[in-house]
Amino acid sequence: MSPGDAAAEDAELQGVTWALTIEAPDALRPVLERYLDLARYQRADRKEGITRGELMRLLSAAPAQVRQLLETEGYFGAKARTELPQDSGAPSAGTQAATAPPATAATPPATTTAAPVIQVRLWVDPGPRTTVGGLRLDVHGELATAAAAGDGPARALIEQLRRQWALPNGQPFTREGWDDAKTAVLTLLRTEGYPAASWAHSAAQVDAQAHQAKLQLDVASGPLFRFGSFSFEGLSQVRLDAVLALRNVATGEPLREQALLNYQDRLVKTGLFDTVAVTYDPDPELAQATPILVRVRERSLQQATTGVGISDLSGPRVTLEHLHQRPFDLGWQAKTKLQLGRDARSLSLDLTSHPQPGPYRNLVAGSLSETEASGLRVISERLRLGRTQDTERIERTYYVELQRAFTRDLATNLVTDDTSAASVNYQWVWRRFDHPVLPTQGWGISADGAVGHSFATEQRSGWFSRGNARLTAYWTPGENWYGQTRMELGEVFSRNSVAVPYTLLFRAGGDDSVRGYGYQSLGPTDATGSAVGGRVLATGSLELARPFSLKHPAWWGAVFADAGNAATGWNTWSAAWGYGAGVRWRSPVGALRVDLAWGQQLRRLRLHFTVGITL
Fold first, then answer.
1. Could you tell me which residues belong to the region Disordered (predicted)?
2. By three-state DSSP, how is residue 114 classified?
3. Which pLDDT tens digit goes with each residue over 234-253?
4. How many structural domains are present in the chain?
């Protein structure tokens, strides 16, 4: 071998470096930069090395790869060519179209010095994009038979399949869109009771000259599955009749996925289980009476938890909780909670029965609390007896309540009120949010009403009624903008001379009411400046938020305006305003909100913070 040949071989084996420029439409460039071998090898670890000959092979293969990649995006007539500068030590790969002719490698210069960076340019002409130019979607099997026999739900489901097909005429035809559209058809069938559905035939005939794709699809529905018997694994402390009471379907009904999810959700919401899984075997042989298997893992018989925190209501606080899943071997759940805070202290015991038909849960609750706010120390005693019903979107609670409110002026240490009441109450909550913990769309309403009789030691006793309603809405006014609206109205109906317990009257202010003011600091006061409850309440809030950066979508900045107040009557009501800005962290357990608000009446700033959503 001559010295010149040896030098040429050394140069051929020496690793080369190149810079790639892709001349293509902006929408297609990311696909090419990510998947094209010429681009991927450029990003590879330089220690692996690549010879000049290997680079030429990549250049030769690039046009064909471009065509394959762009076909997935709906471009079936793409053309591409690669170019090298004439002084790069390698010849140009030339113009390439559907396929690229083999590249001819020139003899590199005989040198042992480091090779310069080679400038490589890739030109791409995608041509017109192929669109859907025809669609035929046929259904076979039991679903088609039922529809032909006049079954309304079957006909509606077939119409829904065709109406919701994700690649209609005129839509760009892409491989991802094609796969997603077919998956969506099977998903809809399976959620509506046809879990054995499959594609009997699917084809996309592409006319590259006309730039159109004709779609032909035949789906085999399989049999309609129906609910059969329910069996349970993992039950020990919870009785079988309790979990059966939550069942929201009857034997023989179509086995729809949403019904299973609703049942699973009901089991989870009882608080009796750590995990719940509702499953079945999609065996067509069992379609007429499909067995349902429910696997649960019960919570520990007893649980104790502690917590620390801080809030507008109580200042710093410590919380101790104890939960017993079946005290005294009864079908009840007992929850004891002790909270010790700077401005609020409470002890409560809640007894809730395991689920009963309806599904309902009976409840017995008692509490004792002491709160200091707006110049008053309020001691409240409550005893409640009733039942509650939770469905997928609505919560209802009916109960009778005995309560006593004892208030003392902190400045004078004088008793200002000592009133008891017996009442019949109804609470109703309706939610429709896109996420139970971190909503961005939807709305919810909570309302409660009461009719009762008060028993006062100082003032006149008598009949009264009370109503309160709250609306919370989440909406998106624009891309990456999020809005929240909150409104609340309340009123106590009675003669002015009739005493009503302080805990049933209204106050405003705080992080969940009117920010910029202390908790329950807004409302009527007596001659000494101590708070007295208002008989009417109206508050409202408007907030806009936006992520600080799309790279960190969990952190938001927000601005807001709140207004509201409590008063002795609507003729004396006037709004107190609060404005401010804050930070939101959308954590997995709920949104952490930190707000700095200006109270217009007080003319000073106040810091507020809270976790979670309130309805």
1. 83-112
2. coil
3. 999 999 999 999 998 899 99
4. 5
